[in-house]
Design goal:
It catalyses: ATP + H2O + phospholipidSide 1 = ADP + phosphate + phospholipidSide 2. With 1199 residues, the protein is of the alpha+beta class.
Length: 1199
């Protein structure tokens, strides 16, 4: 890496002098610094839980005892080289069927087995081996992803002030690292210095807490001189801090450096998997590595999940095993009776030479041995190929997921990656979706669309919600399904709502400027100077250009300005200001510079504004202010924030535009836009000086009340504001997100959001994604803070309660009030949204309160949990999974979501037809296995099988396996396009229509009937009937082969009748399986090893018409009842997909559009969230305007 240390940014910004709340640094003193451990609760260092010692720039100490800290190598795999075999084998034999076949495989080596050992061991080895290979391949993929992370490179100090690049996995505790802009932090670091002069850096923590807003971190004052590579040549220090733990937002420790002790708090800690932004580089020392890092502490070992269907399969196998034991007992008792009473009479069997397996003098012992024989003989009731077929289907489904063109990201070139296929079928059963940061659905791009200035609304563009509402009303059919995709494919110039009232959809130029979709000639190209309130408009634009914390950067390639902003909103405002003619182009330590294009007659003018104070935004304040001095010496306070916060701080003479602005804000909210109010205040020099003195005292104070003092002093100046206007930006969602959420809602799925975002951010994103909408009643659960905490604490002391108990009582009261509000609501269209923060969630998840919280959440249309830790995400997921008792799906985008994803039933999968597939497996094995029992009883419980060993070996593995695999992989009752038009079809999965006990028992009964028909019809036909030209009757081999032929035909015809969607693959597998049987019997019959089956088809059965007639008769007898059943069901009691299939087959969707739309409207679950619900609300608003007999209503759209 060499000497790439380099210098600082030219502007040498000292942000700590501007930031009020984030960048406070306690001044250091000699000895125990004022900011030492005692000042920050650091006295715990050295005690239990605080024993970590880090020798800075001396990593060798930590590689050996007594410290011996773990390396920075991480692994998320389920197995390693040593554990793969024992763990994978354990996983396979958790399945009861495999355990049974292991026992029979062992017993096949004894004389009691009626089959050869190979025929029992080979299928088990094949099934278990294939499943283990699949597990190994999937874990190998996880291993390769881990290696990509472990092999990332970072600059590390190697000594003598020189840095070199090393792999992440080679880092050790104590190493000094240099992380550059847009790189991830390789471990948990103590920030030493940065490219900014006072050690400030910006960090993106999206992978940790889901927040897109940048966090400000700052180094200790004492380490600021460590600003070059060479300065680390003699750097030494000792860090004493807390032991590894999962708490992302806390840190306790101190730094011993140059004989002084300095307290370390979370503002100096850079966590692994967060990213350096807006900062050229930072230096840091490694504190926690690998699995000791906080993000890895929040992860858990990869669990072995089993799907609901697989667990139900085990229950069915228990039932079949019980049947197997029952008929085996019957067989053994029958055998013992025949041995005792009949064997002595059968002189031709030479009973005097009998062994212990059939000793007439000890029938009980012989019966016990025969029980083991029967358990093996009837083992075909248990489908050994079921698991491997399901595994193969899942692997193929995962392959199709990875190759799905609809899941391909054109921007990155990435396809979907199914890391595991174990739980594919579960997505068809999902009841509740728990999603991390809904912002992962957004592009993190805000588009400036509209604004209100001086009581006048500007901007003719319209949002997706407005256009969809207009189209919906124009259809004249309230039941029509809203086509969300039409919003992006609008080709109409005018939409007629009712006679005489139209929506005019203006075809305006689509903006080529990212973040700016505003269109209104009244403000563009300097035309705003002709407006009546041009002075207010000028102030509005200056607020956009000045009230922020962004940094301008020049693109070296194009020369264009870009902005590094803390939030997407700020970026959009700056782009808008530039397009309006107010370009923010430079920032120094004390000033911001704006190039104004239309404020002077002599062309562009560069103006300097001195920054006096910056009161930054946070979720509690919900506003941001900057205090400036302009070129005329006037002191201005510019403030932007939530309208509710700004309006309550307006002066009496500052409310001139309040009524009109409020109306515009409501309209923007109805249109799905995010809004902020803008205001200002002119300050006198004396007033500002007095306030600033008090502000500085609060800023430099030490103690737990410092933040409260700062907020109080800030609140004093942010009063008597004058309203200027409001902004409306559109949170651009990724393509398809509105349709996705809308369809999920219409399909009846509940959606919860679990995010580390601040409450305000999460709520805004909820609005953008239509999980929240205007008019929804919000129930906010939070723990009171500030003065309320003090009051509650006093009450708590009086009532002998602790502060925590008081907070808990307050939360219980909030939950009770929320539940009462929901119960008393009379309006059926009323929708409630529950929002809860992390502190409140801590109490809500306790045993005595969690069910109250869950019951309230279930009653709400949307649930948003903010500021939650990864552990809390997992706990909420567990509460929902166990409390509701339905399948949960977790969606996450970062390392902080691992616990939640592992706790949920599934991560991601596809909806298949595994229920039908499994039912068919049990059907065919019952139909086949019971014929063996019937023949054994027919043959005097002799233990004789009617089928050749090779027939039984190939039955499950070859001759009937491929059709059922094709059913699982390719079957679709209706196309994916139809599914999107009829979202309620999804409820067939959660309602378990295809795998309930009624259907399972029905298929078992079908198998029982088929076994009876196959056995007794063949016995009746061949009992004393000649089948050869010489008059010979059928022997056991001929009867067994004929019965097996009937089984192959019957079960393959059965699966053909269950299929709704045929491709050439299904035809090949179904009819190819039948053809394979005939090919096999010809080849096998030509081999001398076939014994009794020698030339069985070509010479014995093939020439006999009776064989072909019996095959046709038995196949028809087995399948006609099922054909009658499905015909009756489709005619008299059809399921939803049956109706749709018939409509499509008869082309009624083309011939009768009205009927098709009516059926589509029926197939939508009534929902109070999603794009459709928001459009419905917009329609009510439009109709309200129509009732007032408005002559026309115009909406313009940008395209």
């Amino acid at each position: 890496m060499g000497r790439t240390g380099g210098g600082r940014r030219r502007d040498r910004l000292r942000w700590s002098k501007l930031y009020t709340f984030s960048c406070f640094r306690t001044p250091a003193t000699s000895g125990d610094a004022a900011g030492g451990p005692s000042a920050h609760g650091g006295s715990a260092v050295g005690g239990p839980g605080f024993t970590r010692v880090v020798h800075c720039n001396n990593s060798a100490v930590h590689r050996r005892k007594p410290l011996k800290y773990p390396t920075n190598y991480i692994s998320t795999t389920k197995y390693n080289v040593l554990t793969f075999l024992p763990k994978a084998i354990f996983e396979q034999f958790r399945r009861v069927a495999n355990l049974y076949f292991l026992l029979t495989a062992i017993l096949s080596l004894t004389p009691v087995c009626p089959f050869s050992a190979v025929s029992m061991i080979a299928p088990l080895a094949f099934v278990v081996g294939l499943s283990m290979i699949k597990e190994g391949v999937e874990d190998w993929r996880r291993f390769m992803q881990d290696m990509k992370v472990n092999n990332r490179k970072v600059g590390v100090h190697k000594g003598d002030g020189e840095f070199e690049y090393r792999h992440w996995e080679d880092l050790a505790v104590g190493d000094v690292v240099k992380v550059e802009k847009d790189q991830f932090f390789p471990a948990d670091l103590l920030l030493l210095s940065s490219s900014y002069e006072d050690g400030i850096c910006y960090v993106e923590t999206m992978n940790l807490d889901g927040e897109t807003n940048l966090k400000v971190k700052r180094s200790l004052e004492v380490t600021l001189p460590l600003e070059e590579d060479e300065s680390f040549k003699d750097f030494r220090g000792i860090i004493r801090c807390e032991d590894p733990n999962p708490n992302l937002y806390t840190f306790v420790g101190n730094l011993e450096y140059e004989r002084q002790i300095y307290a370390i708090d979370p503002f100096q800690i850079l966590l692994r998997d967060s990213k350096l932004r807006n900062t050229s580089f930072i230096y840091g020392v490694v504190i926690f590595t690998g699995h000791d890092s906080k993000v890895m502490q929040n992860s858990t070992e990869s669990p072995s999940k089993r799907s609901t269907i697989e667990k139900k399969m085990d229950m069915i196998i228990y039932i079949l095993f019980s049947v197997l034991v029952l008929i085996s007992l019957i067989s053994s008792i029958g055998f013992a009776v025949r041995i005792k009473f009949d064997l002595p009479k059968w002189w031709y069997l030479q009973p005097e030479k009998a062994n212990k397996l059939d000793d007439p003098t000890r029938p009980a012992l012989s019966g016990i041995f025969h029980l083991i024989t029967a358990l093996i003989l009837y083992g075909y009731l248990i489908p050994i190929s079921l698991y491997v077929s399901i595994e193969l289907v899942k692997v193929l489904q995962a392959h199709f997921i990875n190759q799905d063109i609809h899941m391909f990201d054109e921007d990155t070139g990435n396809t979907a990656q199914a890391r595991t296929s174990n739980l594919n079928e579960e997505l068809g059963q999902v009841h509740t979706i728990l999603s991390d940061k809904t912002g992962t659905l957004t592009c993190n791009q805000m588009d400036f669309l509209k604004c209100s200035i001086a009581g006048v609304s500007y901007g003719v563009g319209s949002s997706e919600v407005e256009i969809a509402a207009a189209k919906h009303m124009a259809s004249g059919n309230d039941d029509q399904d809203i086509q969300v995709q039409d919003v992006w494919e609008n080709n109409e110039d005018e939409i007629q709502l009712v006679e005489g009232v139209t929506f005019s959809v203006g075809r305006t130029r689509k903006s080529s400027v990212k973040g700016f979709s505003f269109e209104d000639d009244r403000l563009m190209q300097g035309n705003w100077t002709n407006e009546p309130n041009s002075s207010t408009i000028l102030l509005f634009f200056r607020i956009l250009a000045l009230c922020h914390t962004a940094i301008p950067e020049v693109n070296e390639a194009t020369g264009a300005l870009t902005y590094e902003a803390e939030s997407p909103d700020e970026g959009a405002f700056l782009v808008a200001a530039r397009e309006f003619g107010f370009e923010f182009f430079k920032r120094t330590q004390s000033s911001v510079f704006v190039r104004e294009n239309f404020t002077a007659s002599n062309g562009p003018t560069e103006r300097e504004f001195k920054v006096l104070n910056l009161l930054e935004f946070n979720s509690k304040r919900k506003r941001m202010s900057v205090i400036l001095k302009d070129e005329d010496g006037q002191i201005l306070l510019l403030c932007k924030g939530a309208d509710s916060i700004i309006f309550e701080r307006l002066a009496k003479n500052g409310r001139v535009f309040e009524a009109d602005t409020t109306k515009h804000l409501n309209d923007y909210g109805e249109a799905g836009l995010r809004t902020l109010a803008l205001s200002y205040r002119v300050l006198d020099e004396s007033e500002y000086s007095a306030w600033n003195a008090e502000f500085l005292r609060a800023k430099t104070s030490i103690g737990p009340d410092r933040e409260l003092q700062l907020e109080h002093v800030s609140d004093l100046i942010e009063r008597e504001l004058i309203l200027v206007g409001a902004t409306a930006v559109e949170d651009k969602l990724q393509k398809g997100v509105p349709q996705c959420i809308d369809r999920l809602a219409q399909a009846g799925l509940k959606i919860w959001v679990l995010t580390g975002d601040k409450m305000e951010t999460a709520i805004n994103i909820g609005y953008a994604c239509s999980l929240l909408r205007q008019g929804m009643r919000r129930i906010c659960l939070s723990i009171p803070t500030g003065d309320q905490v003090a009051q509650d604490a006093k009450k708590a002391l009086l009532s002998s309660l602790t502060t925590d108990q008081a907070a808990k009582e307050s939360l219980m009261l909030q939950i009770a009030n929320g539940s009462q509000m929901v119960k008393l609501e009379k309006d059926p269209d009323a929708a409630f949204a529950l929002v809860i923060d992390g502190k409140a969630l801590t109490f809500a998840l306790e045993d005595d309160m969690k069910h109250m919280f869950l019951n309230l959440a279930i009653e709400c249309a949307s649930v948003i949990c903010c500021r939650v830790s990864p552990k809390q995400k997992a706990l909420v997921t567990r509460l929902v999974k166990e409390g509701i008792g339905k399948t949960t799906l977790a969606i996450g985008d970062g390392a902080n979501d691992v616990g939640m994803i592992q706790e949920a039933d599934i991560g991601v999968g596809i909806s298949g037809v595994e229920g039908m597939q499994i039912c068919y497996f049990f059907y065919k094995n019952i139909a086949f296995g019971l014929t063996i029992f019937y023949f054994e009883a027919f043959a005097g419980f002799s233990g004789q099988s009617v089928y050749d060993d090779w027939f039984m070996l190939l039955f499950n593995v070859v001759l009937t396996s491929l059709p059922v695999i094709s059913l699982g992989v390719f079957e679709q009752d209706v196309s994916s396009e139809i599914c999107l038009q009829f979202p309620a079809l999804y409820q067939q999965g959660p309602k378990n229509l295809f795998f309930d006990w009624y259907r399972i028992l029905g298929w078992m009964a079908n198998g029982l009937y088929s076994s009876l028909a196959i056995f007794f019809l063949n016995i009746c036909i061949f009992y004393d009937q000649a089948i050869r030209s010489g008059g010979q009757t059928a022997d056991m081999a001929a009867v067994g082969t004929t019965m097996f032929t009937c089984i192959i035909w019957a079960v393959n015809m059965q699966i053909a009748l269950t299929m709704s969607h045929f491709t050439w693959i299904q035809h090949l597998f179904v009819w190819g399986s039948v053809g394979t049987w005939y090919l096999f019997i010809i080849v096998y019959g030509s081999a001398l090893r076939s014994r009794d089956n020698y030339q069985i088809l070509l010479e014995v059965l093939g020439p006999a018409p009776l064989y072909w007639a019996a095959t046709l008769l038995v196949t028809a007898a087995c399948n006609i009842p099922y054909l009658i059943h499905i015909s009756y069901q489709r005619s008299c009691n059809p399921l939803d997909h049956h109706v749709i299939q018939e409509i499509k087959y008869l082309k009624k969707d083309v011939e009768d559009q009205t009927m098709w739309k009516r059926e589509r409207s029926k197939a939508r679950q009534r929902t109070k969230i999603g794009f459709t619900a928001r459009v419905d609300a917009k329609i009510k608003q439009i109709r309200g305007k129509l009732h007032k007999k408005a002559p026309s209503l115009t909406i313009h759209t940008v395209s």
